[in-house]
Design goal:
Structural class: alpha+beta
Largest sheet: 5 strands, antiparallel
Shape: elongated
Number of strands: 16
Number of domains: 3
Order of helices and strands: EEEHHHEEEHHHEEEEHEEEEHEE
Number of helices: 8
Length: 298
């Protein structure tokens, strides 16, 4: 939509589900599900601000305004600061935030900045796979919220004496203690970057369903995308090896189902569906979608 030389009133119609504006004999529509653009288009129309109308209807301008210029669209491709091409789950999340009507793009911009500080291209590409499985939350610092299963005493389920631990308490078996508030960190070279090896050395975190499939206690953690190393393929990209994470909280098993026993579809639409019993990797589940017994997964 090119409006540089012509900013004037055009025919339009507003309904509860859609706004359509006819410009240069072409109709441009925005649906109410795209709350960000719908609300701004409606407001601009009622104010008679035609320049704002055209700018809001133009998705490219909407993206650039939302990201305060950090994200641009060139020839149909999305770029961060004009250099790094974005795709997949990051673009989906961007559009999701726009449609939800959120005005603060800071967490997403910080996430992208953190992601691009990861020294490994393959790690970045694999992280897209992990995030595509579920729309895992991104916090204000651009970190990703994930989960981890541990033993009753808080130690990791498995240990590796050859791992170089930089932060964290280690027992004689090489297992690491996970307490709320702790930062756990190992040398990046101590983490297996081969995604084709499922059970291998490194710090493991994952989706809620993956984390609760083993261990006696489930923790909420967060990690910097720059610290992601590999996403093994053996669990449908539900687990991730990292070199550092922070322990945020212990999930209460008695109340966790009320807010965590839901899965978001991979498309990131925000629509939720209940967990399908017996869906997974040969792990039997009960009628609520919970694993009946744990299996020895590293």
């Amino acid at each position: 939509m090119n409006t540089k030389n012509k900013v004037s009133a055009c025919p339009y119609i507003i309904s509860d589900v859609c706004i359509t504006v006819v410009y240069d004999n072409k109709p441009y529509s925005v649906h109410s599900s795209d709350k960000f653009r719908y609300d701004r288009t409606k407001d601009a129309l009622l104010r008679g601000d035609w320049e704002a109308v055209y700018k809001t209807l133009d998705i490219i301008s909407a993206i650039e305004d939302f990201s305060k210029g950090d994200i641009s669209v060139v020839n149909g491709e999305v770029f961060y600061k004009g250099k790094e091409r974005l795709h997949g789950v990051v673009v989906n999340k961007l559009l999701e935030l726009l449609r939800a009507g959120l005005s603060d793009s800071t967490p997403l911009i910080k996430f992208i900045s953190n992601l691009l500080q990861n020294p490994s291209k393959s790690s970045v590409d694999e992280l897209y796979d992990f995030l595509s499985y579920k729309s895992l939350p991104i916090d204000a610092d651009g970190y990703v919220i994930a989960y981890k299963g541990v033993m009753p005493d808080g130690y990791s389920c498995h240990g590796n004496k050859s791992t170089t631990v930089l932060q964290g308490t280690v027992d004689s078996a090489g297992r690491i203690l996970n307490t709320v508030g702790a930062t756990i960190e190992v040398e990046r070279r101590s983490v297996d970057d081969n995604r084709n090896r499922g059970c291998s050395h490194g710090l493991h975190v994952g989706s809620w369903n993956y984390a609760r499939s083993f261990g006696s206690k489930t923790l909420m953690v967060r990690f910097n995308p720059a610290d992601a190393v590999s996403v093994p393929t053996d669990c449908h990209c539900q687990k991730l090896r990292v070199c550092k994470y922070e322990v945020l909280a212990e999930i209460d098993s008695e109340t966790s189902d009320s807010y965590l026993d839901w899965e978001e579809d991979a498309g990131g639409s925000g629509e939720h569906r209940t967990v399908n019993p017996n869906k997974g990797w040969n792990n039997p589940r009960d009628s609520k979608g919970r694993f009946v017994k744990s299996v020895p997964i590293h």
